[in-house]
Specification:
The complex is a heterodimer. Chain A contains 4 helices and 2 strands, in the order αββααα. Chain A is mainly α. In chain B, 43% of the residues lie in helices and 10% in strands. Chain B contains 29 helices and 16 strands. The chains are: A mainly alpha, B alpha+beta. Chain B: Keywords: Membrane, Signal, Transmembrane, Transmembrane helix. Chain B: One of its GO terms (cellular component) is membrane.
Chain lengths: 107, 689
């Protein structure tokens, strides 16, 4: 009685299984916008919760994100200023309660 | 917001410190002002550019001065609110937790708690120093944070703030299965239409009432930017069933946002000293499920825009300098409890709306403001629905039309929740709007007249046509699709039979055979002129028919676009005028009575003695009609230079006399061809057989 050789089918099946399990991660893989980074206190010191270094301090976005990004430039945007960069006591003499043309500076 | 320099405590409504949590209602998860302001700017630095926490720590006495940034503040304990990058860039950001921390005065810790990178225990508000417990599973073994930042931000992050604000003001929402939007369903994110630049300024539209960074107005992608150019594979609509003037007069949103499905804020009541928004009628609360249709507002571009007409009442004090100063919330809050139990309706909107309630509130305000050093004179005013109310010398309520700055109409744009094409206004034909009692003609909102008067309720026709009612009626007659076919048919039949039966066929036949030969037998020039007049008239009548009945099927068959049909109509109209002039010059000698005899003119004008003068009258009439059509037609070519009222009158005249002209020509053809079959051969071949 001749024995059936399943080796070829097994190989194909193995390849398919491998493709199935690897395809999903490959298709979903993406580049992170930010690489792993240290959090930093407002004085710029590293926060390391694993080692316990400054682990009781809140992080500062100015120091943490500002390491790579221009925090001062970004915060000039109107979402952050909302008129604060133009606020002054005599902004509108006809409506003295209006201090800026943004949302910060109105009654 | 208080000024930086103040002379007495009553001047200070909100310092920049108090402002952070102003308006917050933790029980309802409603954030204060600082909840949606992402930090940085006025939440980090004072008006002199000093960082609040450091400056106050170095100058603790300043909290006891009347400085608008530091008065009674705790910046040195709360810390400042730096720009929270994760608020926008971290999917799943916990906005509620951020606001919880702000309410606890844990300003410095709010970003940490909101991001979920750690937990915060304790509250500055309870005079504690908050503790931090970081979530170690988010960190590598070397202590570096590994976190997925979204670039550009996801819409879910935007709607943390904008969803709330837009829902209240406009009723529209995003990522909402009830209040859907075709763009949202196609997977578009906020940043597709509102991209940002490295400075984090985002392309924006032009909200009616907002004055934030007006220099960036209309920098975003509008409907036409994508749908006229196919940007992002946007379908390019033909709008072949829509009259072109509709596209000129209406913003896309008018038809494409026929309804909104969440209750918006219909009004705002400040009488209690708190800002109370009340929902669209029929809605249990703001955001509840209800279908309502926008009102419409004429924008600066002259187009109509869908809006949520918002009614806000306000209290002011008319001071010695003639300025109506808005009262602070706490100033109204001092007066309201005095009269609260005596109000006629405790549940209505707004709370103060009857004359007796207004009298009570104004009297209470007059008493509570008496010692207020903010004002040299105490004259409280109540502003509501285009009127203002104040007390006279006898302490009686005086009602006046509101001419103050308060009277500006509040109408918030509606620009999201775009409906699928099959649900837009007009998808079922013109009757979606041009019908009795359709929403669009019943919902025109009040407009403020240029003289500064308050809002007026005006009818839709008046909005376009001014204040002359007869123009409104004519316009309605001209546009009313239900009546138009019958009216036009009646006019055509009337003119046709008047002309046809008043011409004595037997007599005319006899006259033709008995006429002098120089009249019967046209010269070659006359024949060509007549041919071109008929040809051009036919083109004008055909294109005019398409315009009058908006027959887009014929338009599709014969023309590439409506614009090309219009241009053809203009061009042929001018040609018709020119060829008619040639015709007049050629016929001048043949019909001297028509052109020179006053009695003939009179007979033509009043249709007296029509029968005996039928040929002369016909020619004279066509000359007059050509003149009227030509003048009104040329003026309509330049319609952009006239106001809407003038254009409607011109269009009505043009259309009305066009109908008469067509009827007359039909009658002319019948009398000359059908009734007198030999006449064509006589005229053209110079033979009567």
């Amino acid at each position: 009685m001749e024995r059936i050789n399943y080796s070829f089918q097994v190989k194909i099946l193995a390849i398919l299984v491998a493709v199935f399990f690897t395809w999903q991660p490959i298709s979903q893989a993406k580049i992170r916008a930010c690489p792993p980074m240290y959090l930093r206190t407002q004085e710029g010191k590293i926060i390391n919760p694993v080692s316990g270094e400054n682990a009781d301090r809140p992080y500062s976005t100015r120091q943490t994100c500002g390491k790579c990004h221009d925090y001062n430039m970004i915060t000039k945007g109107y979402h952050f200023q909302q008129g604060w960069d133009r606020i002054r006591d005599d902004f509108d003499k006809e409506m003295p309660w209006v201090l800026s043309d943004g949302m910060m500076g109105k009654q | 917001m208080a000024k930086k320099k103040n002379d007495y405590p009553e001047e200070i409504d909100l310092t920049s410190f108090a402002w952070v949590n102003a308006g917050s209602i933790p029980q309802k998860h409603k954030p204060g002002c600082g909840g949606c302001h992402p930090g940085g700017g006025g939440l980090e630095f004072d008006r002199d550019g000093n960082r609040y926490d450091k400056y106050l720590a170095a100058n603790p006495e300043i909290r006891n001065t009347l400085d608008g940034d530091y008065y009674k503040s705790l910046w040195d304990k709360t810390g400042v609110i730096e720009a929270d990058c994760f608020l926008c860039h971290l999917p799943g950001y916990n906005f509620s937790e951020r606001n919880h921390q702000l309410n606890a005065l844990n300003f410095r810790w709010a970003a940490l708690a909101g991001s979920g990178i750690g937990q915060v225990i304790g509250s500055v508000n309870n005079d504690e120093t908050p503790r931090v417990i970081y979530n170690k599973r988010l960190f590598n073994a070397d202590g570096k944070l590994v976190i997925d930042i979204s670039y550009p931000p996801k819409s879910d992050n935007c709607v943390n703030c904008h969803g709330l604000a837009d829902l209240i003001k406009r009723g529209f929402s995003w990522n909402d299965r009830i209040n859907h939007d075709v763009h949202n369903l196609q997977g578009l994110e906020c940043t597709h239409c509102h991209p940002g630049n490295p400075e984090h300024n985002f392309a924006k539209g032009d909200e009616n009432l907002s004055t934030v960074r007006d220099d960036l107005d209309n920098t975003m992608l509008r409907c036409r930017d994508c749908h006229y150019n196919g940007v992002m594979a946007a379908p390019i609509p033909k709008h072949d069933k829509v009259r072109p003037n509709h596209l000129e007069k209406f913003a896309c949103e008018v038809c494409h946002i026929p309804a909104v499905h969440r209750a918006a804020a219909q009004g705002l009541d400040v009488s209690t000293g708190e800002v109370l928004n009340y929902p669209t009628p029929g809605g249990k609360k703001i955001g509840s499920r209800i279908t309502w249709r926008p009102a419409f507002h004429r924008g600066e571009d002259g187009k109509l825009w869908p809006v949520n007409q918002f009614e806000a009442n306000l209290y002011t004090n008319l001071d010695e300098d003639g300025i109506y100063y808005p009262l602070f919330a706490h100033e109204m809050g001092q007066a309201y409890p005095r009269i609260k139990d005596r109000l006629s309706d405790q549940e209505g909107h707004p709370l103060i709306d009857t004359e007796n309630d207004i009298l009570l509130m104004l009297t209470a305000l007059k008493e509570t403001l008496t010692e207020n050093p903010r004002f040299e004179t105490v004259r409280p005013y109540y502003h509501m629905s285009g009127y203002c109310y104040h007390l006279n010398a006898k302490s009686r309520v005086v009602k006046e039309r509101d001419y103050t700055w308060v009277a500006e109409s509040d109408a918030f744009n509606i620009s999201h929740n775009v409906a699928p094409t099959r649900m837009t206004l007009g998808s079922n034909g013109c009757g979606d709007c041009h019908n009795e009692n359709t929403h669009i003609f019943e919902s025109w909102i009040a407009q403020q007249y240029p003289d500064g008067a308050g809002p007026h309720e005006i009818s839709p026709q008046k909005l376009f046509l001014g204040k002359r009612p007869w123009t409104c009626y004519l316009n309605q007659l001209h546009k009313h699709n239900k009546l138009k076919p019958y009216v036009i048919t009646l006019i055509v039949l009337f003119v046709f039979f008047l002309s046809f039966f008043n011409s004595d066929q037997a007599k005319m036949l006899k006259e033709i055979y008995g006429m002098p030969r120089d009249f019967i037998f046209l010269r070659i020039a006359d024949r060509w002129v007549h041919f071109f007049r008929i040809l051009s008239f036919s083109v004008l009548a055909f294109t005019g028919y398409i315009f009058l009945y908006n027959n887009m099927i014929l338009l599709d068959i014969f023309f590439n676009s409506l614009e090309s049909a219009i241009i053809l109509h203009w061009g042929v109209g001018i040609f018709f005028m020119a060829i008619s002039l040639v015709s007049v010059l050629l016929c001048r000698k043949k019909f001297p009575p028509v052109l020179s005899d006053a009695s003939s003119f009179q007979s033509f004008l009043i249709f007296k003695n029509f029968q005996s003068n039928c040929r002369s009258v016909f020619i004279g009439t066509t000359i007059w009609l050509s003149l009227i059509m030509g003048i009104t037609g040329v003026l309509l070519i330049f319609r952009d230079h006239f106001d809407a009222e003038t254009n409607y009158i011109l269009a009505i005249i043009h259309g009305f006399f066009a109908i008469i002209f067509v009827a007359l020509i039909i009658s002319h053809i019948c009398t000359t061809l059908m009734s007198n079959p030999v006449s064509w051969r006589v005229w053209m071949n110079q033979k009567d057989k």
